[in-house]
Amino acid sequence: MTDYDDLFTETAPDDSLFTAKGVLDPLADPEEVRARESQERELATHLNGIHDEYLPPTVSIHGPPGTGKTITTRRVCREFAARTESIAVEYVNLKECRTLFSAANEIYYELSGEKKGAYAGLDGVFEGIWNALEEYPEWTVLLLDEIDHIQQDTNYDPSDFFYRLLRGEGKLARGINLSVWLLSNELLEVDLRLDSRVESTMSDETVFFPPYGEEELVAILEPRVERAFRDGAVPEDAFEYGIREAARRWGDARKALTLFRQAGETASERGLDEVTKDCLEVNLETTDRDTTMETLLDLPFNHFLVLTGITGWKRGGEIRQPVTTAKVHEFLHQDEYPEEFSLSERTIRTLLTDLETMGLIETWIESKGREGRQKQIETTFEPQWVQDAMTDYATESTYLKAIVANEE
Ligand SMILES: Nc1ncnc2c1ncn2[C@@H]1O[C@H](COP(=O)(O)OP(=O)(O)OP(=O)(O)O)[C@@H](O)[C@H]1O
Q: In total, how many domains does the chain have?
């Protein structure tokens, strides 16, 4: 039987280095947006367009994860709307939307507090959107976050969705002034392969959020680390080291905040009275692994398969890298593997190019005497992580169960 008195005493933070750990939660609203002055200025200039009776039909706000796109855009829009009666701003996150119908319904819900049934179809939902917007102030900015989660579905094409949103008859007939701001990690056109009739409706306005450098991460993190930790718990050299590594590896404020929180937890667990470089170092590794694992689990099947071929050759229990394209091909053509694994060398080469673009592998050409010049391939991360990701990946993919069974 558990003695709860002992349990709670043992787990109570006695020598914790934190005073307000929640301040390091990336979801907690920061007091101020920092180090994004030029993007704030660009966004404010677009909003001020209403004084000239013009808002761009679309603004594409893009940049890698954790670069402040959401926080900066929402804050600037909120502050502008608070000062200007003729404009309303609505924010919708599309991350969880599996279909274009549900994405449209999410927008409708934000505007009206109601949802439409499936029988309404996309047209019905858009009709609802235009009816709701008629009750809105003269100008509306619609912020659509994580727009890159929108994909082809069996019923509609993203081009249909955007065409309705930007050019819908209901909108034009009612003279609704809607500006759609699209937040994403990539430039939209690349991701969604929108057709030319939609592209020509979209404006070229873009606001780019590059990865943060050291100086910017200091501006964002310094006030939060100061509030989150006891006085002197994060010595200057440790702070500088964490910032330098976070800037070099990720340029992502969310990850940098998490790094300092985890390093503080490590220091507390080890009974230290300050965060050391080593506490940061172990957590840098963990964060890198978690991020890579997330990417691996999101990969399309064939890309993941090729990675299992790159990391599948072993010598003395150790994964052997680099490998050649021929070796990857050979690995995937093992007798016990199902037909679907047998990718051609040509397909493998295309997939390798994709994996390299994603930063998951590195390749180079080596001269091998009589065998001629050969492409060498190596993962940019610990190859074991592909093996580690297999079980989880296999639960989503029946094919990969064969590989896992083979490994065991
Ligand atoms: N310039 C900044 N000033 C203050 N805090 C920031 C800034 N940039 C990022 N942050 C912190 O990092 C968190 C993540 O930022 P945000 O959600 O805006 O990133 P994002 O670029 O929209 O990321 P994603 O593409 O993953 O959605 C914010 O909630 C905030 O706590």
A: 3
Same domain, residue pair 180 and 219: no
Same domain flag for 164 and 81: yes
DSSP per-residue codes, 28-67: SPPSS--S-HHHHHHHHHHHGGGGGT---SEEEEE-STTS
Q: Can you tell me which atom of ligand 1 is nearest the CA of 254?
A: 12
34 within ligand 1 shell (Cβ under 6 A): yes
Residues 230, 104 within the same domain: no
Say if ligand 1 is within 6 A of residue 71 CB: yes
User: 150 or 306, which is more confident?
Assistant: 306
User: Which protein residue's CA is at the shortest distance from atom 17 of ligand 1?
Assistant: 70
Q: pLDDT band for 171, please (50, 70, 90 cuts).
A: confident
The domain boundary residue, chosen from 176, 208, 240: 208
Residue with CA at minimum distance from ligand 1 atom 27? 65
Return the CATH number at 229. 1.10.8.60
On whether 71 is known to bind a ligand per the annotation, the reply is yes
* Position with higher pLDDT, 404 vs 226: 226
Antiparallel, parallel or unpaired: β 318-319 and 314-315: antiparallel
pTM above 0.90, yes or no: no
Q: What rounded mean pLDDT belongs to the chain?
A: 90
The domain of 239 spans: 15-25+213-295
Predicted ipTM of the assembly: 0.99
CB under 8 Å to 342, separation ≥6 — which residues?
332, 333
Ligand 1, atom nearest to 145 Cα: 27
